Amino acid sequence: MAKDIIPIGDQTPSASPRKATKATKAKTARAIGRPTGKGRIGKELLIEKTAELLRTVPPEKLSLSVAARHAKVHLTLFKYYFQDRTRLLVDVARMLSKEIGDRVIEIEGANDAKSAPERLAIRIDAMVDFFLVNPFYHRLMVEIIDNETDPLATELINLWMGKTLEIYEGLIDAGVAEGTLRPIDPAFTFLAIMGLCEKILHAAKLVGRGGESPAQAAERYKAFVIDMILKGVGAEGVAGTQPARKVAAGS
């Protein structure tokens, strides 16, 4: 403890008002700085709160102050953990990317998916559901891709695309080997699927005018995208087949 800060309960008549003021300022600064104690708010919770906010607010409108207001914490807490807006977006994107990846693995396990068309269909199914909850994920990733100055943003995109391409390369190679897929570009295949799945938001609004519920629209849209993709990338004679899929527990 600094010499000029007098602990509470140990103040003496000789303590000057100036010293007491310094003690108060020190305590105030600590209260809005690094969190301490059992009830402290950690970085993971702030990331989750920001991801929650990005379900209704596009990333270009997000700032540290907006995120802090939504999380109902002091702005300094966000500045302590993230320094700037880009670092916050990178951490949110990392969490969401892991979430969709884990979800696909879960569904593949529940379906005991083996063939390449089955795995592609599962990825489309999971991605449509993901975009229904996280409508601005694609825009979030695009913003990070466009950031060519922040090393953490570059690192995330390289890791994200590297792992994604590895998955799609393996999936397409397996499909070619089993005679169910054509030898197509894995990067373009992924980007096409992602772009189509993002459009569920517009599709649901358009067909909703005819009285169809969002859930019904989503199911029809999944079937449409799966059929279109498999017909486009499938080998002749097997294209367009849609394997039956189970729903993973908890969905």
TrEMBL record:
UniProt-listed InterPro entries:
Homeodomain-like_sf, HTH-type_TetR-like_transc_reg, Tet_transcr_reg_TetR-rel_C_sf, TetR_C
Q: Which terms in the Gene Ontology molecular function aspect does this entry carry? A: DNA-binding transcription factor activity; transcription cis-regulatory region binding
Q: Is the Transcription regulation keyword given for this protein?
A: yes
- Gene3D superfamilies according to UniProt: Tetracycline Repressor, domain 2
Q: Identify the keywords attached in UniProt to this record, alphabetized.
A: DNA-binding, Transcription, Transcription regulation
Indicate, by first and last residue, each region the UniProt record lists as having compositional bias (Basic residues): 19-28
Q: Where is the Tetracyclin repressor-like C-terminal domain?
A: 117-235
Q: From the UniProt entry, list the residue stretches annotated as the region Disordered.
A: 1-37
Keyword Transcription regulation carried by entry: yes
Name under which the protein is recorded: TetR/AcrR family transcriptional regulator
